[in-house]
Structures are given as structure tokens and as C-alpha cells.
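Retro notes, item 3 of 5
We never archived the inputs for the fe (ii) ion complex last cycle. Fixing that now. Sequence and ligand:
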Amino acid sequence: MELPVVDLTPYLLQSQTNNFSEKEIKNLCFEVSKTLRETGALLVKDPRCSAEDNDRFLDMMESYFEKPDEFKCLQQRSHLHYQVGVTPEGVEVPRSLVDEEMQQKLRMLPEESQPSLPVGPDPKWRYMWRIGSRPSNTRFQELNSEPVIPEGFPEWKEAMDSWGYKMVSAIEAVAEMAAIGFGLEKDAFTSLMKMGPHLLAPTGSNLQKYGQLGTVFAGYHYDLNFLTIHGRSRFPGLNIWLSNGQKVEVKVPVGCLLIQTGKQLEWLTAGECLAGMHEVVVTNRTIEAIESAKQQNRSLWRVSSTLFAHVASDSVLKPLGHFAEFPVATNYPSISAGEFVELELAVINLKGKSEGESIMANKSRMK
Ligand SMILES: O=C(O)CCC(=O)C(=O)O
Ligand SMILES: [Fe+2]
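Structure as it came back at the time:
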């Protein structure tokens, strides 16, 4: 199954040219909302995000992840729930390891669509870098804290910000198109995203150390944010699940970006658009890429150019517009996005354990 690629150019240029009819733009928006609903994922081409920008970002992150662990741990901020700076390997727990309800659901998937079951925390590292301005007044200060810059990377801020802002812009265009496609106001989602704690959050996986077939770098999970966007990684390995339960290995064409639906979008649409399940596993294609990287003397760190776009922490998550009339809307009670994120972080081990345990007891709220 090939995911369709949506070129955002007509949407972005509609106000400057008369080349595209209103109907064409509407159809494009329907394609976006339909694909997000059916697949939980969408490939887009955004003329503002070039393959060169992506490469510059990947080059810098590869040289960061190549540094010794002791150096990287200087950028660790566990007291801020790792929401800025580095998260070492072996910290983040994939939801499927701790969520019994998710385990039951995944057992019902057909054999060929079974995920690789994680046996412990993810062996991937991650760096979190906040993109965009922060609210001066927020109930969720630690989700909106100051960024961390590693020593010896003078280009860090510029490289992270320039890639990050471009990715947020691409998400904003998709969020507007999806809102139109779902029959909501154009800014129904983007107005909630203003001042959101958007995070450029590349993962770094050491394929030299953990390059064996079947290694699970990110166990089966959904993303807790609104929409996730990834540039192209130099090493494949991402599998996604369509809403019909089919497992698909993602191939991101050069110059394209991959968007995935997160739990906050599921909340806002009362489950019309479910959060996309996914995993990152060493596959035969990853091994081929490892072999060719070795031959070309390239880095064996698999870096993802992931950005998590969020609803602002103080905004309320609840089904919007006609979605509020759905009978299942009661499964999505009003909750501030900040509170929601803290509860989710607790489950995946990024925020205080005791809260993590209590949230599991409280699970009926989170469905
Ligand atoms: O490493 C990747 O490609 C994506 C990892 C992932 O799913 C995540 O960071 O949530
Ligand atoms: Fe993810």
C-alpha cells in the first residue's frame, strides 16, 4: 500500500494566484482529512521544506548523537520531564508495554499485522527542542521551559529553529486543510495550536550497537500530541497501522514529509480521526541501509527529524463542532491539554512514577 503524496503548493499559493479553483482547493482539503481518517498518516510536499534543509539538520544531529554518553547526559533535564534537552536510551517506555487495554487490542490484530512486542524501555535517545513562543502566563510552566544548548555546537539554535519553524508551518497548513475537510472552521485547530509547546524531538538510535534484525527502537505506541511530522530519515524502520488495523512499512520519498495523527486530534474529533499507532523496528531494509552507510563511511546513528505539534497547554481538549454531537463524544471529556499531556507522560515514564501508576488506575478517563 502506497500512501498518497499531497502537494501543499496549491493551498499555500491560493491567495496569490488564480491558478486554482475553489473546488480544487476544497478537494485537496477533503483528500487530507480522508487520508488522515483512514490511515492516520499523510505524505506531503511543502515547497518551504527542502531535502537540503532536512540534510543539514540530520548532519548536525548525527554529530551530536555520536558524542559520548557522559557529554549528552549534561543536557538531561529529568525534573522537567525531559521536555527539553536529551532523553537517554532506556528511559521512555512504549505505551504497549504498560497499557493492558492496548495489549488486548493488539492481540486481536491479524497475525501479519502484529507489532514487534517491546520487552522493555526504548533503546533510542531523543533530543527535545521547543519551537515557537511560550505563553507568559501558563499553569504548565515545566512544559514550557527554556531550551538547552549543548556546548560546542555554535550552529545549534539556528539549525534547530530553522528546521523546526518550517515543520510547524507545514503542520499548520495541514491542520487548516484538515479542518476544512472535516467541515470545521479553517482555524478550528490552528487557533488551539497558538503558543503550543511544539517540540522538535529527533530520535537517535545507535545502529552500531543495536543494529540486529528485529530490534525495537520505539515500541508500538501512539503520539500524545496533536499532529507529528517527520522529515526523511536516512534509515527506514517506521511501521504504521491504518485505521483498519493493516500494518504498513512507511517509505518517505525524497523531499517529502510524513504527518501522523496524535491523540489530541483524536480528542478534538471524538475519535473520527484516531491517533495513528506506529513502531520503529530494525527491518531488512534498515540492514541494507546500514550496509550501504558502512561502505560510504557514514554515521550509523539513525536520526529521525520528528516534530510534535501540540495544542496549547492551557487550551481545552474537547470534541469540536459536529463531533461534539457524536455518541462517543462522552469518551472524550473536556480536559486542559497541559493536564492531558502530564497524564500521558506519566504513563510512558517521562514524569513521576507514582502519577504514572495512578493514571493507569484512572484509565477509563483516557479512552
Ligand atoms: O524514530 C522515529 O522515526 C519515530 C519515533 C517515534 O515514533 C516517536 O518519536 O514518537
Ligand atoms: Fe511516535
